[in-house]
Amino acid sequence: MTTPDSTELTGFTVEPYPGLPLTVRDVGAGRPVLVLHGGGGPASVSGVVDHFAATSRVLAPTHPGWEDTPRPEWFASVGDLVETYLDLLDDRDLRDVLVLGSSFGGWIAAEMAVRDRGRRIGGLIVMGAFGPRIEGHEVRFPTGPPGPPPGAGSGAGSGPGEGSGPGDGSGPGQGPGPGQGPGPGQGPGPGEGSGAPAPRRGPSPAALQALAAYAGPTKSDPKLLHRLARVTVPALAVWGGNDTVVPPDYGRAYAAAIPGARFALIPGAGHLPTREDPEATFAAIDAFLAAAGR
């Protein structure tokens, strides 16, 4: 008898297509919630998973190409991910699903809500998301790893391939926010004893390669903004007030394109508001869900 690994204990792996294993974290019980990570990988939404797992069943897939998971060359578009995750909801016969996506995951979530012909989705939340091409509101993708924030000591910056892409919460001028690690003059955070390796603050090189394959050279879809009018479920756009990767005005335009969508600004937070101000962010999310009768 073999000892089950952590995936078997807290989730499952399926093969939606030959040669494409999909790892899904599956925790909690209750109304289903699908959590889609951004460039920073599953760790960037771990707080979201934990928050909802207290009252809901949470499915959190790892996009193929992240965390050393295989991604066949033919699997190379946002549409591929969208169809795979819609099929996952169908195959598991999940209904009234709340889909929440952060950064790149928000693009996938929004496309899922547009294409949901099976009416599996019951709510949509996008956080610091990109995807639609919005004239006059450009996404400011970093061109290279940012240096350390002003006044930060050594070790506060990012190494090559870290903190240099959407979904990492550390765009230019954004140091680690609350819950992201120690700032200048602060001691180590919980679980960060002396001598412990610093956690990666951004996507790995392999993840950046996968992101480039999925998002394409423009990292946007010129048609998505118009198709968002098809979304019929309650929707919320959550944005950090200091997000320098996907600015708040972009988020406001994003929300305005979705009928009846709400926009919640989290002052002082950056690209990952659930890490940088979890109390305010989850309060906004919970208030939205309560108002929507969820």
TrEMBL record:
SUPFAM superfamilies attached to this UniProt entry: alpha/beta-Hydrolases
Ranges of Gly residues composition bias in the record: 152-178
Keyword terms: Hydrolase
Stored InterPro entries: AB_hydrolase_1, AB_hydrolase_fold
Domain of life of the organism encoding this protein: Bacteria
Record-annotated AB hydrolase-1 domain positions: 33-283
Region (Disordered): 136-204
Keyword Membrane: no
Bias kind Low complexity: ranges: 195-204
Listed Pfam families: Abhydrolase_6 (PF12697)
An example molecular function term from Gene Ontology annotations: hydrolase activity
Listed PANTHER family: ALPHA_BETA-HYDROLASES SUPERFAMILY PROTEIN, HYDROLASE
Protein's recorded name: Alpha/beta hydrolase
Lineage of producing organism: Bacteria, Bacillati, Actinomycetota, Actinomycetes, Kitasatosporales
